[in-house]
Design brief:
Layout (H helix, E strand, L loop, with lengths): L1 H7 L3 H18 L8 H19 L3 H16 L5 H17 L3 H13 L7 H16 L4 H13 L4 H17 L3 H14 L3 H18 L2 H46 L1
Amino acid sequence: MNGVGYYEMDSVVRACEQYMTALEIMEERFSEKDLVGPKAKFMALTYTRLSQIFSDQYLHEQAILFARQSLPFYQRQSSSSWHLSRMLKEIGSQYDMMEMFDSAGLYYQKALAELSDTTGLLYRDIATVQAFLSYKEGENYQSVLKNLLRLSGQSESDWERTSRYAIIGELYYHEGLYDSAWRYLDQVFRESPIVASKKQSAELMAEICKLQEKETQLIEYAGFLVPFATQEENGSTLKSQLRVMYDEYRQGIIEKNSAKQ
C-alpha cells in the first residue's frame, strides 16, 4: 500500500522500493509451496505493478523480467486465464517495441491460446497488435487494413475506437497515404483519453505537416509535444535510478539461485 501511495504521488523510485521490499518479505517468510491462493495473487499483482512502472519508462528488458515473474503466480489461481493472457500480451508488446518480432509474435500467440472468450476486449486488443505485427513483418497492407477496420468496427467504447484508429492511422502513415492517415490520427489526437496515444498521433501528424508544408497546423502539434521533450530530459535520472534498482534485484535473484544449487 505504501508503494501505491508513492506511485500516486509520482515518487516512482520510492514506489519500486516498497514493492520490492514486499516481495522480499513474502519470499523470506513463505516457501514456494505456500505461495498459493491470496498470497499468489498478491505476488502476481506486485510483479505486475513493477512491470508497468518499468514499461512506462520504456525500460523494456526490465519490464519483461517482472512480467515473466508474475506468470507462475497467475497460473496458480483458479480464474487465471484472463490475467495470464493479459500479461503474455504485455510481454509480447515489450518485444514488439524492441522490434524483436519473432518473440513478440510467440507471446501474442500464447496470449490468444489462454483465452476461451473470442468476443471480449482483450481478444480484440491482441488480434489488433497481432495484425499490425504481421504488417511490420511484410504482409500486404491492404489485407492487414481490412482486418484492422473489422476490429475497429467491433469497438464498444470511444477509448477502444480511438485505440484502433491510432494503429490504422500509423499504418496509413507508413504507406505514405497521408490524407487517410490524417483522418484517423486527428480523431485520436482530439478524442483519445490516452495521453500516449495523443502523443504518438501528434508526432506523426507533425511529420505530415512538415512533409506537406502545413506550418499553421504544425504549430498546434509541436506545441502539444513540447512538455514531453522536457519530461524526457528530466526522466534520464529516473531511468538511471530504476536501472540500478533492477540490476541489484537481478543480482539478488542470481545469488539466491546459486545458493539453492
